[in-house]
Amino acid sequence: MSRFPAEDDLDEDQVIDHRRAGPTVLRMLVGAELRRLREAAGISRGRAGYEIRASDTKISRLELGRTGFKPRDVQDLLTLYGVTDHAGRESLLVMARQASTPGWWHAYADVIPASLESYIGLEQGAAVIRTWDPLYVTELLQTEDYARALVQAVNRGAADEENERRVALRTRRARVLTDPGTVTLWAVLDESALRRRVGGAATMRGQLRHLIEASALPNVTIHVLPFSHGAHGVMGGPIAIMRPPATELSDVVCLPQLVGAIYPDRQADVDRYYAVMNALVVDAVPAAASVRLIEDMLKEY
C-alpha cells in the first residue's frame, strides 16, 4: 500500500517550508508526490490519464506542477495508485487545495503573460535563485525608476496606468529579498548591463547605488563579468535557476523571454545550463571586487 506522509509524520520545519512556499512550489510538491506514487504502483501516464478523463500529456503537466489540481482528480489518482490511508490522502488533498490558492501576483494578471506566472511563482517561493543577465540589471535588483524606464521602452504605446502596474509588480517582487525567510540571490551581470544608460544619468546613479547597497545584504551576492574577459559560454539571453525550498524537488531552469519564459526540462539541457552558470561565476570578477567596479562606474555619472 502506497502512503503519502501526513503532516504529523513531518518535522515542524518541513511543514512550515511547504506552507510558505507559495502555490507554484506547492503544485510542484503535489505533482512530484503523485508521480512517485504512480511509478511505485507501476501505472503508466496513459492509464492515469484515462482514470481522470485526460491525456498522458496532462498527467505529465500535473506531475511537473505546471497546472492546477481538481480535488476529484487527485482523489481518483490516489485511489488508482492504492493510497488508502486516510491521513495520507487528506494531507495531499489539503496541499493540493493550498496549491490552488492564488498568489499575491495574481492581482496583476492583466499585465503578466501566462508563462511568466510560473516564473514569478517559482521566484517568490525559491530558497536560492541564480541569475545571469547580459543586457539589463536583474529584475529583483532594479530600482523603481530603472524598472519604469525599461517597462516604458519595452511596452511603447501601452497606457501609462498599465505600465505603472508593471512597475508596481516588479518592485513588489523585489521584496522577496528582504521579507522574512528571504531567498538567497546569486546574480551575475555582464558589464554591458551596467554600462547601458537606462533612463538617464540620475536613474543610473540610483541604480548603481542600489546595487552597492544590495550587495551588503547577507543573502545577496553580485558578480560582474567584465568586457575584458572577452567571449564566454553564454552569448545569449538571461538565465535563472530556481531552487525550491523543499529538498525533494529539483531545481528549475528558466529562460525569461520578452513575453514569458521557457523552462527546459530535459536533463541534458539542465546540466548544460548548470555548467554555464558555474563557468560564469568562475569567469566573473569576485564579489568584493565587483562592488568596487560598480563604485568606479558610479563615479562616471
UniProtKB/TrEMBL annotation:
<dbReference type="InterPro" id="IPR043917">
    <property type="entry name" value="DUF5753"/>
</dbReference>
<dbReference type="Pfam" id="PF13560">
    <property type="entry name" value="HTH_31"/>
</dbReference>
<dbReference type="InterPro" id="IPR001387">
    <property type="entry name" value="Cro/C1-type_HTH"/>
</dbReference>
<dbReference type="Pfam" id="PF19054">
    <property type="entry name" value="DUF5753"/>
</dbReference>
<feature type="domain" description="DUF5753">
    <location>
        <begin position="117"/>
        <end position="295"/>
    </location>
</feature>
<dbReference type="InterPro" id="IPR010982">
    <property type="entry name" value="Lambda_DNA-bd_dom_sf"/>
</dbReference>
<protein>
    <submittedName>
        <fullName>Transcriptional regulator with XRE-family HTH domain</fullName>
    </submittedName>
</protein>
<dbReference type="GO" id="GO:0003677">
    <property type="term" value="F:DNA binding"/>
</dbReference>
